[in-house]
From TrEMBL:
Main location: membrane
Protein source organism: Elysia marginata
Name of the molecule in the record: Solute carrier family 22 member 15
Keywords: Membrane, Transmembrane, Transmembrane helix
GO MF annotation, one: transmembrane transporter activity
Its membrane topology: Multi-pass membrane protein
Lineage: Eukaryota, Metazoa, Spiralia, Lophotrochozoa, Mollusca
Origin: domain of life: Eukaryota
TM region(s), chain numbering: 7-28, 34-55, 67-86, 127-146
Length: 167
């Protein structure tokens, strides 16, 4: 009986040590990610500020903004088309209409808030461009996280997506 108790204590200690090690590793990873994000944001802000100063000194800021606006509008139009393609592929048949409605509504909410973001230029002129650029990059990265559907059977029911746990 004493031997089993000692074994149980050893197992508990090992489990606690492993859990603490995992928590420490996760915390270190989170801190590293936060530091990297902060550094990237600072670098982007500095680069934008330098570009604004250089472009303003040459008088080409308006042309640069026009080019970026046209390019942005092009990619926005492309993204609206992909919303419908991805929604049709990723949502099961029984909830496809609701899923496409939510995806379309989410896209339209961005269009509703866009004019308000332009008011941010009163505090710092490149801020709206920076906000739109960062949000666009985040949307592009999140699109990369969607599952690949090439040569795979598409879900027809909710059980195809999330198997029933009660079985």
């Amino acid at each position: 009986m004493v031997r089993v108790d000692k074994l149980l204590v050893v197992v508990v200690v090992v489990v606690v040590v492993v859990v603490v090690a995992v928590v420490v590793v996760v915390l270190v990873v989170v801190v590293v990610v936060v530091v990297v994000v902060v550094v990237v944001v600072v670098v982007v802000v500095v680069i934008v500020e330098v570009v604004v100063v250089v472009v303003n000194s040459s008088g080409a800021m308006k042309n640069l903004v026009k080019i970026l606006v046209v390019a942005g509008k092009f990619w926005i139009t492309c993204s609206y088309a992909t919303i419908y393609l991805w929604s049709a592929e990723l949502f099961p048949t029984v909830v496809r209409n609701a899923g496409m409605g939510v995806a379309s509504m989410s896209a339209r909410i961005g269009g509703i808030f866009a004019p308000f973001i332009l008011d941010l230029r009163d505090s710092w002129s490149p801020l709206p461009l920076l906000v739109f650029g960062v949000l666009s990059i985040m949307a592009g990265v999140s699109g990369l996280l969607l599952p690949e559907t090439n040569r795979r059977s598409l879900p027809q029911t909710l059980d195809d997506v999330v198997p029933n746990q009660s079985k």
